[in-house]
Design brief:
Helices cover 28% and strands 28% of the residues. By secondary structure, it is of the alpha/beta class.
């Protein structure tokens, strides 16, 4: 049995969202990724603990004009990665707006803060202390500094998010007895409506 989780990836333009997702899903660092237009989507199946998990990862364009798309995709989401660029202080300042949209439309999902481009140490603009303050302010489960180029912490971020989701977001369908994310209104295995969205 594979448990399916919907993951949102949000943050400003050029912070490295698409590069991170593709590094995680393919194991390859791509330097020629184009800016996402609207929403991009990838799937990755992994093992977390004893569970087989399938992540459907929704990568949102970072331009403000595309932020209006995010609320519609929050439905059924189990987790979110909020990204900023460690070498760009402005990308950290915009995080409030992204978190606000997610918290308003999916208030109970697990959130992780991710600082990208950790390999560019000499160009760093965002101190770890500030990132940890943001993580605490929005009750995120953790903060990781990643590098899509070297692969540093890329797997760890998704593993940690998946483990947290498994711990707090599963319930058993009363019709087919499969474990499903509590955010869903319909069982992903038998298709039946989960009464009052709770069991």
């Amino acid at each position: 049995m594979v448990v399916k989780f919907k993951i949102l990836v949000a943050g400003n333009k050029s912070v490295g969202k698409t590069t991170l997702v593709r590094r995680y899903c393919t194991g390859v660092f791509q330097t020629d990724t184009l800016s996402t237009i609207g929403v991009d989507f990838m799937v990755k199946e992994v093992k977390i603990g004893n569970e087989d998990v399938s992540f459907s990862i929704w990568d949102f364009a970072g331009e403000k004009k595309f932020r209006q798309l995010l609320p519609a995709y929050c439905s059924g989401a189990s987790g979110a990665l909020l990204l900023f660029d460690l070498t760009n202080a402005e990308s950290m300042e915009e995080l409030d707006a992204w978190v606000e949209v997610i918290d308003r439309n999916a208030p109970d999902i697990s959130k992780v803060l991710v600082g990208t481009k950790a390999d560019l140490v000499a160009n760093r603009q965002v101190p770890k202390r500030l990132a940890e303050e943001i993580m605490s302010k929005y009750k995120m489960i953790g903060f990781w500094e990643t590098s899509s180029k070297t692969g540093e912490n890329v797997e760890d971020v998704f593993q940690a998010l998946g483990a947290e989701i498994l711990k707090r977001s599963l319930r058993r369908c009363p019709y087919c007895d499969h474990l499903v994310p509590k955010e869903l209104y319909f069982c992903q295995f038998c298709g039946k409506k989960l009464i009052n969205n709770s069991v």
